[in-house]
Design a protein that fits this description.
There is one protein chain. The protein is α+β, with helices and mostly antiparallel strands. The protein has one domain (25-144, 187-252). It is built from six helices and seven strands. It has helices at residues 99-106, 108-113, 116-130, 133-142, 152-156, 169-176, and strands at 25-35, 40-54, 57-71, 74-81, 206-218, 221-233, 239-252. It has a seven-stranded antiparallel β-sheet. Helix 1 (99-106) packs antiparallel against helix 3. The radius of gyration is 20 Å and the shape is globular.
Length: 260
């Protein structure tokens, strides 16, 4: 099937990030998935928190990197920096349905703290789900895309909001036997202030990127800006944005009354 144009997601990649203001906190993360043979993949997961002194300088609050190898979506090798011996408990786990529950059971303190490590492991399932898009993009370009096995669309229905039974994706897959695929716009580079270091995306790789900025507005409220983007690198070294969104909101903080 050709690339779709009528049911595409957000297609306006964020060109520039808002500047960091003093004492604002920025959290960034990337999950890069690269094909490494039939049914195999190499995954590089990174995240960092920084706090701004001023718009041009930030101090690192925390940083973590996890590398893993998967065969048929099952973790058969995993390591991290800083070193965390607990991650070996994930060997043999499938990065798919049930993985988040496994992470929360094995690492409850990380979930409780909403740590960088938990962010990466929690987001890994979604990143793995869409990582096949990169190879699908190649197959469509070469005209060798294969049909989904019978019943696949019904099995996918309801696994997340994008796969809701009445959303555009599932009915399309039922009608055509393929997942709808877009040829998105060129994705701007991730070079803004406070971004963590990462390796270049390789051909047919897929990157899930997130940014969360949290900063004060006044004595009683803070504002957050959230940026999300999925990107693939085509065989021609063109970095394409599959979907990209940025949203913002303001929280009002209230002090709980003290007793006594």
């Amino acid at each position: 099937m050709p690339f779709v144009t009528d049911i595409v997601g957000p297609q306006r990649p964020v060109q520039a990030w808002p500047p960091l203001v003093a004492v604002a906190v920025r959290r960034t993360s990337t999950i890069d998935t690269h094909p490494a043979g039939t049914g195999e993949s190499e995954v590089d997961l990174r995240a960092r928190d920084v706090v701004a002194r001023d718009p041009d300088m930030a101090d690192v609050l925390g940083e973590v990197c996890v590398r893993a190898h998967l065969t048929d979506r099952v973790v058969d090798d995993i390591a991290s920096h800083p070193h965390d011996t607990r991650l070996v408990q994930l060997l043999g786990s499938r990065v798919g349905p049930g993985f988040r529950a496994t992470v929360n059971k094995l690492l409850p303190d990380e979930a409780e703290r909403a740590s960088l490590l938990h962010l990466l492991l929690d987001d890994w399932v979604g990143a793995a789900l869409v990582s096949g898009y990169a190879l699908q993009h190649v197959a469509i370009t070469l005209g060798i895309e294969e049909k989904l096995p019978p019943g696949t669309a019904d099995n996918m229905a309801g696994i997340c909001a994008g796969f809701a039974s009445d959303a555009s994706l599932v009915p399309y897959a039922r009608r055509n036997g393929t997942i709808p695929s877009v040829h998105g716009p060129v994705a701007p580079p991730l070079v803004d202030a406070g971004m963590h270091a990462f390796e270049p995306l390789r051909a047919h790789g897929m990157r899930r990127f997130r940014r969360l900025d949290l900063g004060p507005v006044d004595a009683g409220s803070v504002e957050f800006v959230a940026h999300f983007r999925d990107t693939t690198l085509t065989a021609t070294a063109s970095r394409r944005s599959c979907t990209s969104t940025q949203s913002s909101a303001r929280w009002t903080l209230r002090r709980e009354p003290t007793s006594g």
